[in-house]
Specification:
With 257 residues, the protein is an alpha/beta fold. It has helices at 18-29, 41-51, 70-84, 107-132, 155-175, 196-203, 205-215, 224-235; strands at 9-13, 33-38, 60-64, 89-92, 137-142, 180-187, 246-249. It has a single domain (9-249), classed as NAD(P)-binding Rossmann-like Domain (Rossmann fold, 3-Layer(aba) Sandwich). Helix 1 packs across helix 8, helix 4 runs parallel beside helix 5 and helix 6 (196-203) packs across helix 7 (205-215). The relative contact order is 0.15.
Length: 257
Amino acid sequence: MNLQLTNQICFVAGSSRGIGRAIAAALLAEGASIVLTGRNEESLESTLAELATAETHTRILPIAADFTNPEAVSAAFARTLQHFGKIDHLIANLGTGSGTPGPTPPPEDWTRLFDQNFFASVRLTEAALPHLRAHGGSILYISSIVAVEATPAPLPYCAAKAALTNYAKNLSRHLAAEKIRVNTIAPGNIFFPGGSWERHLTNRKEAVESMLKTEVPQNRFGTPEEIASLAAYLCSPLAAFSTGSTYIMDGGQTRSL
């Protein structure tokens, strides 16, 4: 399918591995140019080497940065504008679910997980908006089913992703008249090398397999590429009437929606 993304500039935060990497690859395949970002320089360089070809290397700008740092956000957008001249789409794939389980997590978990899963995306949004307002575009957040469903995940992570999903919904109403669309994808259990589910399978394989069997009607993990296909579509003109929506991709796991 031609998603009409040729010559579009996509800033993909958190794209050195996993879901973000797959989104970057999908956008490249559709003719877009991408800003490839990650905190780990080694991982970023490895992904760049895998994605860059004779045809695509001029359409990739790698930036190593920690977007919990406001100065890093500003510097990343300055480099993007200097290199590509514009930004058409922001894909905010940020965060971690690593934290203390149970009803009373420590205060530092609340601060850390909200900063990584919510405030970092807000900073990116506010930095991108002046450039998106120049000609319209889209913002896409990668949230999680923990935002809409009761799960065993750490409470600060659940609350931060719920805040992100609600922020996106309300932001979409503020920006619709400026031709900026805002959507969210809430993935379920996504497996990729080096991800948390790989560790869980190593440490407690039977429990993970039991969870998939009892909680996920499709009885399997999702893949980053499945999320990426939807992400690329939502950035495209083919999704022009879609804004303010949360798209759940979880193999049928959620019961509440």
